[in-house]
């Protein structure tokens, strides 16, 4: 059909009066609920949108993101991949001076674990003196939940993208309660980490050698259909992973098998870290496409919320990390909460987590809300994403693909910020988790990325 | 004794957006309330903030995305309550989650659609229009004030689309009719054999309204925007529109309406016209060329149809002093230019120009500026003005303007542009202006000649 | 939608779009009408007038846009068969509604031109519509043969037998004739076969002469429309497919979905018409 062959169905954007005039003619219209872009972005938007590379660049970048085929290929000790004297941490770069309570706590814990300090005070002094190099996980093909601290004697999931060939790592999940990633570093925390180093890591490594690579893309797709959103709910995915691993664990480590399997079974979030590595390897596949406005990382260090964009290489664009809005454990309240922390927003970056909330009705109670809120959250994310994931589907939305691939230009145009599900860490080092909920990323992280992108575009007048 | 009259209030609603037409209507409703001396409900753009400051309001720090409600009244609470009531009336009902409205054209284009109509503020129209082009959809950009490089870029990108009908109409495209559907300011026209390509919205409205009166309908009116035939844009949309109409079986004859194009564009357009199978009648608005009414008559003759008398309603005989000067208060730029040419007057103001519409509604919707201008005329003036009917225009222009005409010291001549099918009722509007003392013509050219004859 | 107080009761002003076929009736002075039938998607009004169409369909967006219809921008009012209404002076009064028209569409848009080869290709794809209501009927065969030969007497005789033949609101015989009439007129004009257009004129005059007494009022009105070349977008779509301005197969599928057998009957009429245009074109001098 061509434009002139029949009365048109019209998308209207702007003055309601003109939409009314069409409806009065019995013309079907789709009105856009338009609003002005985020303040200060109008000119940058025009430049970025006009960039002749953008459309193709975004299609390429997002197709790399959604076509990635992450496979769990192994478990390795961090010392194998980490430079000596370096600890990794979540989020954009941070110094000890600016680090928040849970970040400091986790770094202290790592010092104690590695035997680099005798007690917390000594650890703090060493860290303040720069005794250890602190680098963001993201810059080392790694992600870490909450504080995301990785030190040499921790073990990492190794995930390979069979489509594009990338590799990404994520630490092993310690469980809930008092754990290092929430900034706790008491004796029971260190004891558990030592057990993970001596028993869990080697057992999993040996088991994965037997199973061979596990297809995480299909596992995640299944878990979505079983009610996980893969950030705050990983119960189905953990069960699926456990089912894959159990026989091999028994064969590979008969002596420790019961302990290992009981540990995994006791932690609904065990899969989160494998899922994060899968998300990381997928978003990394979309990096460095010149002219692309696709977000390839969102990460928080407990102080700053940082964003990286495909067309802008490794540059971070940051804003202050917000305090999550959610439900608190026991007697904790908002006053006990640390600002947002962790690399787990890589799930949202890849189209899972908050973006897939509609797949996970069970989660809405946990983050406070109704099922309709979850559906609304996911639907709204289609407004700021470039694609619908071909494999990750939401049964409740008619098996529509999850919204995948955030576009900073669409964020600026709609004023809609990514929906992020998250755990809430206590602000005092050593407290651990105090709750879970939703957090609003700072708009300036996205707008400053857009402005930088505009600056990188050649002048449309030339 | 009247201390309450001094009360004023300024409220900031963060991140609340309404379009300027809606806000203008709310402002007008508030101003009409008893006891209200000043009221403005507007987005906190730099322009609006400066207007409010000129009105003596103290405006706090705001973003352009915030809504300002500023009222000076004896009962500010009642006024603010009324503002909220009006704003909620205009706001569409909160949708169920499964009916969340799309926030961008890109998102809306996921549902089946054939055309996008953009009427956001001009500085934001590019993003929506580009979404349309990238989705392979034709787009009408009603907004004005879009930088010319963006217009050029949109039209070039449209040519790269695989589909041959991704037409960019506008920016500043006031009117279009596609398959009978009136978009923007369009008249209710009967279907028929005449296709129109127009770089002038009101020019197209004049020609098609006269054709409709003559019983001849139009197939489509494709607006291309006032700048399309400039050297910078190169007539890209006009040439595509001509080809589309040439391929349209319903179109037997094409009328091309524009200001004189730049010489090299004129050459390109003439070449394009030469390749068409469909005959083309040109209505170029310049000295020596036929005016819009004459062009319409040529169209009728080319189709072998009779040319009727164009309806007019002479004013009641009255005893006015001899006229000395012709002034024009126009809503349509092209109609104003035509009037200036015929009446030989340089005192013709185009109230539809960017300079008058920035931050306020178009004079086809908002009569305020012209009502004021009429009040400031002399009894030796002849005022020529257009009243444009149709979709989107003031639902009853006579309601506010006829009163102003009746009170104006000047002799008034009205060019009433519209059809018998228009929602405003052409005959009722004509009667109201005539009753107010004006002479009324459906041909702007005849109105201008009449005005000149009064000198 | 605005509400104003009428002398006797509250009237709701609504607007919509209409086929230009109903324009003469709407623009003449007001006449009484009554509700002939009421369906979820449309209300048929019979207007006391000599003008055609004398039956007007007031419909919603879901209904078929018959060439005699007025499309409402809002929901239909609740009315029952036999209710009074009125049509004229540019509006329709129906139940509480006062309906005016804001847009007109042409139910008889020209097709452009079509060459013989494409017409022959299209004819081959029209051969077997799914189960028309009068499959194997002798009068249909006679109609097809008469038209193909340009044998006016045979065509007219067959047409007279077919008017009102079959059950339902629009009997199959009428649908076949309607499909044939619009095809002869439009495809005949597009192919430059004047004899086909001439035949459409004669057949049209025949079937409309006493249609009001021979078939249902709605079907009689649709025959009047078809005699002038007016049809629903589903029929026009197939004609455009035949003329090559849009894909034929999807248009045919849309047509076939209409009614119980209406779509198939219309398609049968169209097929007869296309064959007649081809065969009459062969017989014209200079070919």
Automatic annotation (TrEMBL), chain A:
Any Pfam family the entry gives: AllG
InterPro entries in UniProt: AllG-like, OXTCase_su_AllG_h-dom
Protein name per Swiss-Prot or TrEMBL: DUF1116 domain-containing protein
Protein's organism: Nonomuraea deserti
């Amino acid at each position: 059909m061509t434009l002139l062959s029949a009365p048109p169905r019209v998308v209207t954007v702007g003055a309601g009066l003109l939409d009314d005039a069409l409806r009065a003619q019995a013309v079907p219209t789709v009105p856009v609920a338009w609003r002005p872009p985020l303040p200060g972005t109008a000119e940058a938007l025009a430049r970025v949108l006009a960039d002749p590379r953008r459309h193709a660049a975004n299609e390429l970048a997002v197709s790399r993101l959604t076509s990635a085929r992450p496979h769990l290929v192994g478990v390795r000790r961090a010392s194998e991949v980490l430079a000596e004297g370096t600890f990794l941490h979540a989020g954009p770069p941070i110094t000890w001076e600016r680090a928040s309570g849970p970040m400091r706590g986790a770094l202290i814990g790592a010092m104690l674990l590695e035997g680099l300090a005798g007690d917390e005070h000594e650890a703090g002094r060493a860290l303040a003196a720069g005794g250890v190099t602190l680098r963001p996980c993201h810059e080392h093909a790694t992600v870490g939940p909450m504080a995301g601290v990785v030190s040499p004697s921790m073990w990492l999931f190794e995930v390979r993208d069979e489509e594009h060939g990338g590799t990404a790592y994520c630490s092993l999940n310690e469980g809930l309660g008092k754990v290092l990633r929430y900034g706790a570093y008491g004796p029971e925390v260190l004891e558990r980490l030592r057990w993970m180093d001596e028993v869990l890591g080697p057992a999993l490594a040996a088991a994965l050698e037997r199973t061979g690579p596990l297809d995480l893309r299909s596992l995640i797709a299944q878990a979505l259909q079983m009610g996980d959103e893969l950030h705050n709910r990983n119960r189905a995915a953990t069960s699926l992973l456990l089912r894959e691993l159990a026989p091999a664990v028994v064969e590979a480590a008969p002596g420790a098998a019961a302990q290992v399997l009981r540990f995994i079974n006791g932690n609904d979030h065990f899969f989160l870290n494998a899922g994060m590595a899968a998300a990381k390897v997928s978003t990394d596949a979309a990096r460095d496409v010149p002219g692309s406005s696709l977000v390839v990382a969102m990460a928080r260090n407990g102080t700053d919320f940082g964003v990286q964009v495909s067309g802008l290489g490794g540059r971070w664009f940051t804003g202050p990390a917000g305090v999550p809005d959610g439900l608190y454990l026991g007697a904790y309240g908002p006053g006990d909460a640390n600002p947002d922390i962790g690399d787990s927003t890589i799930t949202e970056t890849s189209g899972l987590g908050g973006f897939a909330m509609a797949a996970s009705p069970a989660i809405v109670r946990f983050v406070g809300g109704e099922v309709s809120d979850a559906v609304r959250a996911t639907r709204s994310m289609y407004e700021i994403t470039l694609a619908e994931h071909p494999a990750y589907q939401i049964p409740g939305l008619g098996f529509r693909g999850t919204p995948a691939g955030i576009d900073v230009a669409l964020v600026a145009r709609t004023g809609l910020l990514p929906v992020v599900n998250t755990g809430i860490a206590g602000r005092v080092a050593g407290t651990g988790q105090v709750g879970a909920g939703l957090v609003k990323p700072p708009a300036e992280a996205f707008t400053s990325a857009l402005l930088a992108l505009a600056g990188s575009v050649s002048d449309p007048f030339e | 004794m009247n201390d309450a009259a001094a009360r004023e209030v300024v409220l900031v609603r963060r991140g609340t957006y309404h379009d300027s037409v809606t806000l203008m209507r709310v402002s007008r409703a508030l101003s009409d309330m008893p006891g209200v001396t000043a009221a403005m409900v507007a987005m906190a753009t730099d322009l609006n903030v400066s207007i409010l400051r000129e009105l003596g309001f103290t405006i706090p720090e705001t973003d352009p995305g915030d809504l300002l409600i500023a009222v000076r009244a004896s009962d500010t609470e009642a006024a603010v309550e009324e503002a909220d009531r009006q704003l909620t009336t205009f706001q569409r009902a909160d949708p169920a989650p499964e009916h969340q409205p799309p926030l961008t054209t890109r998102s809306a284009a996921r549902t089946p659609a054939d055309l996008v109509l953009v009427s956001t503020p001009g500085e934001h129209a590019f993003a929506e229009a580009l979404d349309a082009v990238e989705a392979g959809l034709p787009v009408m950009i009603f907004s004005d004030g879009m930088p010319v490089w963006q217009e050029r870029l949109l039209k070039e990108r449209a040519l790269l689309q695989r589909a041959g009908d991704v037409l960019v109409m506008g920016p500043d495209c006031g009117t279009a009719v596609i398959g009978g559907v009136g978009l923007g300011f369009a008249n209710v026209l009967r279907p028929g054999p005449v296709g129109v390509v127009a770089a002038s919205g009101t020019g197209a409205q004049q020609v098609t309204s006269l054709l409709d009166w003559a019983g001849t309908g139009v197939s489509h009116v494709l607006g291309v925007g006032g700048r399309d035939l400039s050297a910078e844009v190169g007539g890209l949309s006009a040439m595509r529109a001509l080809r589309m109409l040439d391929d349209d079986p319903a179109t037997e004859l094409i009328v091309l309406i524009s200001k004189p194009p730049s010489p090299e564009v004129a050459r390109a357009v003439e070449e394009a016209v030469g390749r068409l199978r469909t005959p083309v009648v040109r209505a170029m608005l310049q000295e020596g060329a036929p005016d819009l009414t004459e062009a319409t008559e040529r169209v009728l003759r080319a189709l072998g149809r009779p040319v009727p008398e164009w309806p007019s309603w002479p004013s009641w005989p009255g005893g006015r002093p001899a006229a000395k000067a012709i002034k024009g208060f126009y809503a349509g730029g092209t109609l104003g230019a035509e009037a200036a040419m015929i009446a030989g007057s340089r005192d013709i103001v185009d109230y539809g120009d960017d300079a008058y519409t920035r931050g306020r509604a178009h004079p086809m919707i908002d009569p305020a500026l012209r009502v004021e201008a009429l009040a400031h005329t002399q009894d030796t003036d002849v005022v020529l003005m257009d009243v444009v009917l149709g979709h989107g225009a003031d639902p009853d222009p006579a309601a506010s303007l006829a009163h102003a005409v009746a009170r104006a010291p000047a002799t008034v001549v009205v060019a009433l542009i519209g059809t018998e099918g228009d929602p405003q009722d052409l005959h009722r509007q004509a009667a109201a202006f005539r009753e107010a003392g004006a002479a009324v013509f459906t041909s702007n050219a005849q109105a201008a000649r009449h005005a000149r004859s009064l000198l | 939608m605005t509400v104003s107080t009428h002398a006797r009761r509250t009237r709701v002003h609504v607007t919509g779009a209409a086929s230009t076929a109903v324009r003469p009736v709407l623009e003449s002075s007001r006449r009484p009408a009554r509700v002939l039938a009421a369906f979820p998607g449309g209300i048929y009004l019979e207007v006391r007038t000599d003008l055609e169409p004398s039956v007007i369909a007031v419909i919603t967006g879901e209904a078929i846009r018959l060439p005699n219809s007025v499309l409402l921008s809002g929901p239909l009012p609740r009315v029952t068969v036999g209710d009074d209404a009125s049509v004229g002076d540019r509006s329709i009064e129906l139940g509480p509604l006062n309906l005016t028209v804001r847009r007109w569409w042409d139910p008889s848009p020209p097709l452009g031109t079509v060459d013989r080869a494409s017409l022959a290709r299209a004819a081959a794809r029209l051969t077997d519509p799914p189960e028309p209501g009068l499959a194997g009927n002798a009068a249909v065969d006679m109609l097809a043969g008469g038209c193909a030969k340009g044998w006016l007497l045979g065509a007219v005789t067959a047409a007279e037998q077919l008017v009102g033949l079959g059950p339902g609101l629009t009997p199959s015989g009428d649908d076949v004739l309607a499909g044939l009439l619009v095809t002869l007129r439009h495809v005949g004009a597009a192919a430059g076969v004047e004899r086909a257009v001439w035949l459409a004129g004669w057949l049209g005059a025949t079937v409309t002469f006493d249609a009001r007494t021979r078939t249902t009022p709605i079907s009689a009105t649709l025959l009047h429309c078809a005699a002038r070349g007016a049809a629903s977008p589903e029929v026009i779509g197939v004609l455009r497919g035949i003329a090559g301005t849009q894909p034929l197969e999807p248009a045919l599928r849309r047509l076939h979905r209409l009614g119980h057998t209406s779509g198939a009957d219309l398609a049968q009429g169209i097929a007869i018409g296309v064959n007649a245009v081809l065969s009459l074109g062969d017989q014209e001098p200079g070919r």
